Amino acid sequence: MSFSGVLSQLLEIVIAIALAPLLSGWVNQWRAWLQNRSAPGLLQPYRMLHKLFNKESMVADHASSLFRMAPYLKFGCMVLACSIIPTLSTDLPLAPAADTIALVGLFALARVFISLAAMDIGTAFGSMGARREMLVGFLAEPALLTVLFSASLISKSTSLTTIVETLAHRDFAIYPGMAFAAVAFLMVSLAENARVPIDNPATHLELTMLHEALLLEYSGRHLALLEWAASLKLFAYSCIGLALFFPWGIAEARAPAAMLLALPALLFKLGVGGFLVAVWETVNAKMRIFRVPEFLATAFLLAVLGMLVQLLLAR
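Now predict its structure.
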């Protein structure tokens, strides 16, 4: 394990934890501007986290230890997921221990814990949100896996670092199957992060909300960790999309000097991506919950189509 590898791994984790709320603030700011509203400050998510961490956590008398542990477990899963996604460099000591299948497993593990915690209290809205969350996960995870498998057919490996090295540091080539995979990944990312058209993060209507229904019984530091974990999840999905479809700028292993250029490139790509997310949420409306299975089934079919195209071209 080289010193540059340890440094890049630590930078990956620190940057993910530090920049995730900033990405959420950037999206919220642009969304407000595009809707002709007064925009919150770019650092508003940090202020909210500071306020919540300084408040007392109120827990129901009959809440089990799972309810108290779930925020820490979800936050840990999101940090670990961000640590194995190459954002600055492919020289990551933790990357060989987890491939794309393990990455999807981390997202699923976090979903299971927060869904069980939402049902632990026994409230109607918590149970409703948990059922909806598991429904979205049940439909989105196969589509995400198929997208990742489409990229793995190019590199002959399910390791994200190997995929990035293959796509970014070889001669330029056009992969038609990746176009279908990109559209499928966008649809899955919107669903997994409870964005429009699956959910509207700007509203808290009890009968339509998905993500917020899981957090109704949390407060204080527990709510702060869950909100931070949601920002980390958006950051992780953004970095997965950049690693698969726009990998240029990520430094190669054993090239620590290239990381100096990788950070500005990452900030630029995240800024453009956050702006496009705000535009998408401005021009689209939330769909009915009963149409979500059709939306995610379409994503899965597009991902399968992309994988089949890659298989046919590989022959």
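Residues 3-34 form the longest helix (32 residues).
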